[in-house]
Amino acid sequence: MANHSRLDRVASLIQQELGSMFARGLKDPRIGFVTITGAKVSPDLREAWVYYTVHGTEADRKQTARGIEAAKGFLRRELGSRMTQRVTPELHFVIDKAIDEGARIDELINRVHAEDAAREASASQSGGEDAQRQNAPDAPDGDS
User: Fold this and answer.
1) In the prediction, which pLDDT does 1 show?
2) Are residues 92 and 103 in the same domain?
């Protein structure tokens, strides 16, 4: 159990340190506005998976991914100088699509609500016409 909490502490430290590095900015112009959303480390602390999001278009995301891949060695070296571990983990950067998926789900929910509102509005309009027809006196038939 103690080892598990150590993994969490190391992952949190990696997330915090890399987050501050990206917040200060890197010299590579390909790297856009990056947010580090999480980190996980292997049980032996030799590998770390860093989850990030990039704000911008799909082209910005691809360009930032190339920039991060190129800066991986620098980031690992900087991380090693800030951490007190014997071994600095090998960094694997993974785009976190949770925010994009959440925005897509929000969009779908809003679309469903708009469709429901439109359906209710059209039903109330047609329902009002039906009520007017029901309340109108019957027209006399010419057969009586």
Assistant:
1) 44
2) no
